[in-house]
DNA sequence: ATCTAGTTGCAAGTGTGTTGCAATAAGATT
DNA sequence: AATCTTATTGCAACACACTTGCAACTAGAT
């Protein structure tokens, strides 16, 4: 049974192939899960979704693939303030870095892009002579809804 | 054998006592380890240092004390870009937040305070109506030394 | 069709952090 | 100073995320 390999290959798959890496059945599945994710997924969620597409995907392969994508700078790893144990979450690396805000009450994760953040990174590179490869800015606190809810 | 309890109690101990928490022998030791740390320590390093002062400190007590301090906002938890496995590192919460930069080559951790960072936090609070409790900005990349070293 | 090195799956292992519960001790009360 | 109450501790067992060694497999080149 052929895989839905004719679907648009997706940027992740194209990127990996252009780097001379082998495109296995398992990798294709894991990449598609990561690419089509509508929210931040952790390794076990990725495994579960991958198995729905092909029960022949191992936990270890998920870890190895995530680590590969991370090494190649194609995905970012998030901690989301460790609100749900010690899980790590993953998302495709975006064009422009963004901030993750985690509400300590309702658990909602929101994202925010900011010119100030871009300028701050520039300042770090200049003032500290530090060549930035990856950044992670996470903020814990209370979102607008939960602020008004608790004020009521 | 009395403990060196007559030493200046330290801010952490004073803070906890002012909040009506019991000051046990174990807590005093763990607090002093955290307060006098010259670098970022993880839980197992804290345990080891605590045991040097009193072999009667349990691993669990270290975890519980760190979690207590974190809940009370007296220490911050760092991931330092997960360069050394999944450890978490701890430091006393400073007056002013700072950025942690982790060199991916030599592993050095440097810190940086920035007005832009302060302004960015202000922007988040305003634009997102998000009440910030804690922030963590970690940057991975290459420090000045390692940049020049690899250019050579 | 064949080859070879990159990749996978299994099983076992590592390490961090957590939980239930009986024993202990801090700090208040008398 | 003795007593009391309840927070805290230590132990043992557990939970879970992630890793490693290695034989079997297979993608992509020849």
Description:
The structure is a homodimer of 152-residue chains. A three-stranded antiparallel β-sheet of chain A has the order 1-3-2. A three-stranded mixed β-sheet of chain A has the order 5-4-6. The longest helix of chain A has 13 residues, at 59-71. Chain A is flat, with a radius of gyration of 18 Å. Chain A is built from six helices and six strands. Chain A is 43% helix and 20% strand. The first copy, chain A, folds into two domains: 1-93, Winged helix-like DNA-binding domain superfamily/Winged helix DNA-binding domain (Arc Repressor Mutant, subunit A, Orthogonal Bundle); 94-152, Ferric-uptake regulator, C-terminal dimerisarion domain (Dna Ligase, domain 1). With 152 residues, chain A is an alpha+beta fold. In chain A, helix 2 (25-36) packs across helix 3 (43-53) and helix 3 packs across helix 4 (59-71). The A-B interface holds A 77, 79, 81-82, 86, 88, 99, 101, 103-104, 110, 112, 114, 116-117, 119-121, 123-124, 127-144, 147 and B 77, 79, 81-82, 86, 88, 99, 101, 103-104, 110, 112, 114, 116-117, 119-121, 123-124, 127-144, 147. Strand 6 of chain A pairs antiparallel with strand 6 (131-142) of chain B. Chain B binds a DNA duplex (30 and 30 nucleotides) through helix 2 and helix 4.
